[in-house]
Amino acid sequence: MYSQYWDDCKLQISAALADAFGVDCSSLFNDLQCNVTMNPIEPRFLKEHRFDVFYLNSEKGAIGESIHEIVHFMWFYVWNQLFGDDYDEYERPSLKWILSEMVVESVMKDKRLSSINPYFPRKNGGCIYPCFFDMKVDDVLILDTLDSMYQSQSIENFMRSSFAYCKEHETEIREYMIKNGAI
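Given the sequence above, the corresponding structure tokens read:
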């Protein structure tokens, strides 16, 4: 059931992610494994090229969750090519991890992705941590700021500028996330 739905959506997802990240991803993660498990947390393991989805998801829900996780794999692949840092720096609760969780929504706005993700848009549950929905910096929603940056820059420039922005406001971001139980 899940495999057939993935096969139906694979080219659409690959094309959208190739456009978003400026990388031909058709053969990039052919070893990527999605495990259907009893773990509702749905972790991802960057080094091992695998992630989990919860077994109670429908095939459409599994695709939505999978796209979220694959965005992380693409994000950190391009990030690593750009900055050459250690993959251990991409895990919770690092600022690089926080940023990667926030930017999923901007990437997911591509109609080729949002149209097959039942959790998008926010009114359907959202495809990111809910604590980000209302997070503000300088009285502006942080997701609006990041989305504006994403829409107006190359992915490499967006990575640089969005991370600089998050570093500048790291204290407020972390305080908000702690207050809302996200870290």
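The chain has a mean pLDDT of 94. Try to locate this feature in the token string yourself.
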